Predict the 3D structure of the following.
Amino acid sequence: MQDSSDWTKLEPEVNSTDADETPTYSLQSEAGRFECSVSGIRWLCQEKVGLKYQFCSWEEPMERMENIQYMPAGPLIDITVIAGKLAEIYLPHWICIDDIPKISDKFAVLHINDCGDVVEKVSEVTPSHVKLPEPDFSPRAVLMKAGAPVSWRCKVLIYQTNTAFLTLHVYLIPCDPALQQAVDKIKLSCGYKVIQKPYPEKSLKMGHRFILTADLDGAKLCPENLKLRYESRDPNFFEVYVENPDRNITLSLTEKNTQQPVWTCEIRRDEYQSTGRTQGEHFVDRHQCDLISRVSNIQPILDNLLKKGVIQQEENDAIRALPTTQEKMRKLYSGALKAGGHAGKDIFYEILKEKEKLLVDDLQKKES
């Protein structure tokens, strides 16, 4: 079994970034062993190759898999080889295979082709992948026999909402990059902020219930517990609500049946306050007049806003053409910041903290 260090990680090129389209990723490699840093796909080749792929939704095929008593065990990925030939490819899975006898008998690979669904036997399973020698391609994914008592490698995703006070949405999902992208898309489009934290180190039992707690008096959490299961879209989440928090907060995830903690993290005060929001009103709104009159380092601010996609090239050119910094700031407020909502203002605030640190510090002192 090859360790992850045996594979050279490659960053894919994103070929489609339209908000309404599923991104397409492409990769090129010379001969050797490689792994895609986004999807986790691994491949072995003896010559230069090129491939592209898209994540597919499990929503429709999952019903068909349940009818034949299988369940998803990895992301559904549509792979196309556009140059060269792959000797082997390894599809990622999120199943913990420790202490499971005859593990390969419980795995299968789904192949969706012109004739429909084909479920293929597995020849080799590693702790993180299933091997396909000399494969042909179309949408493919790793399957697990339904009813098998397995554990999943999981992720905890934390999003801070743009509502008043502190409200967090906390998701527990399998290590599925496609599902994480889908949740990110929903949350970020609403202006929510990601709070990045380490994932659980141990695998978690599929179908078991888990309880989330917070070590802060007055914190309200809903629901009381969640079952770990695969939902192809719009998975459920814990909501954590705290009025006027004033210190670091520790979140803990516990398995309901055993009462054993499986994950903890500390969310520091400066992390949940870093967006500049106070009870729904944003820092850049509260200090609009001061920022318009006192910002001086406007050029690198515009550069970063353009890079982050808050302003587009045409608007960037129009702002830069204005004669004074004050007029540029007014144009920025009336255009991109108004259109970008909380998400755009969050990005602007982070750039201000870097490019106009003394000004931001001064304005924050006036609030304290």
In short: The chain has a mean pLDDT of 88. The first helix runs from residue 59 to 67. Residues 289 and 330 are 9 Å apart (CA to CA).
